[in-house]
Amino acid sequence: MFIVKRTQEKDCRGKITVLSPQRGRLVLMAKGLFKPQSKLSGHLEPLTVVDGLIVWSQQPLLSAAVSRQSFLGIKNDLALTVAATELVRRLAEWWPPGQPLPRSWLDLITLLTQWNSHHYSWSQLTLASQIMSWRLAHELGYAPVGHTCIHCGRPLAAAFWSESQGGFFCEACQPEGLVCHLSHHTLVMWEDLVRSERLELTKLPSSSTILEELTAFFNSWLNFLDLC
Ligand SMILES: [Zn+2]
Fold first, then answer.
1. Tens digits of per-residue pLDDT, 154-182?
2. What angle do CA 5, 11, 12 make, to 5 degrees?
3. Cα(208) to centroid of ligand 1, in Å?
């Protein structure tokens, strides 16, 4: 499982939020985690994959844990740590308790493993975070679909995303108000990145136009999700 965050409760207990490939998001308690002599503490840093032993009760208890992947390449780099922490925080908000999400779990491990060992520019990190978020939303069934205009049903060459309507329109049907334009090239690339079997960090576009279009669309889509 993957450690998202940990907080201190009374009596030096730790409350740990994790993502599990089998059980989705979980909140676990760990006795004595914040005592100086705790053996668990070093293994339960945020942004770490661990093997853990859980005692199931009303409040599941993490009784033992061994870290398997610590992503030290990320933790030793401030920009990477910021990008990874922000991404994981967002994913954990969306990741439902009790639900296995095999594709997104694999995406998360793939992304962090790549970030841990390769150098990426800030825009590549941003774009990878966006694609990962969209892929999770897609697996959960609430990412928008980009083939056809939601008004007239015609196939889309280029798309006009409307934040207030939460969907894609063709040029003729685009509504008043805030609309993000996605060129044909951007739209095709976006669909491909969101739908492909695996997260492909090597395929991320480097064009600044595509990055700008996708980032504007992503932020608008986040606003839309907040509305509903
Ligand atoms: Zn239309």
1. 999 999 999 999 999 999 999 988 899 99
2. 40
3. 27
